[in-house]
Amino acid sequence: MAAASVGSVTEPAFLAAVSTSYDTVADTYVERFPPSRLGPLGRAMLRAFAEIVLAESKGPVADVGCGPGGLTAELAGHGLEVSGIDLSPRMIELARAAHPELPFSVGSMTALDLPDGGLGGLLAHYSTHHLPPERLPAVFAEFCRTLAPGGHLLLGTHLGQDEHLRPTSGYGGHPVSYDWYQLPGERIAALIEGAGLTITARLDEPNPNGAGRSFAYFLARRPG
Ligand SMILES: C[S@@+](CC[C@H](N)C(=O)[O-])C[C@H]1O[C@@H](n2cnc3c(N)ncnc32)[C@H](O)[C@@H]1O
């Protein structure tokens, strides 16, 4: 497979396509997708995740694929010590500008620059859908590796019937070159559990923005 350099790591070309595409759409994304876009159910899941992680205080939280950092800031507002990581340098620039009090860094969820077992929680909201499905076991294993025993994952993603989309424009007509995968919820749940995490709650909601695709939240815990 073709490789490209992302940060200091050599990664497959699909990551470069995601990074470049989100650099292109980042400024529009901030305007169109504020945290307030979350419906009441999504907000409730985010708050429940924060409460559980805070109560168990096993370590800080990483918001992986944080984009412009709106949800990172929401978690901080719930009292969590949180940092954001994203593949797109422009997204990270915008996150730093909007939330200078929070730490943000460029990085990939395929190889997190985080120690084993250090996180009390990991949020991946609307950020895993560009990974080819065959990459998901390794990424979910990476989430499990970085969580402390007893730490919690909150994964939010669109659902579908094994659809592989190749949009050429996004977020207001900007050119994009990423692929987009939508999997059935049962498959995502099985992949999360296959990585060694235990699903503790799942919430399916119709798309709060009114489009046809539904969205699901998976709350999972690293045993121990
Ligand atoms: C649709 S945005 C969601 C941003 C934010 N989580 C939210 O819900 O508003 C998807 C983000 O995931 C990031 N992303 C995609 N693949 C990634 C990867 N392998 N590692 C880190 N970030 C990634 C993109 O750069 C983009 O900023």
TrEMBL record:
GO biological process terms held by the UniProt record: methylation
Coiled coil (UniProt feature): none
Gene3D superfamilies named in the record: Vaccinia Virus protein VP39 (3.40.50.150)
Keywords: Methyltransferase, S-adenosyl-L-methionine, Transferase
Family annotation (CDD domains): AdoMet_MTases
Domain Methyltransferase stretches: 61-151
Position of the signal peptide: none
Gene Ontology MF terms in the entry: methyltransferase activity
Protein name: Methyltransferase domain-containing protein
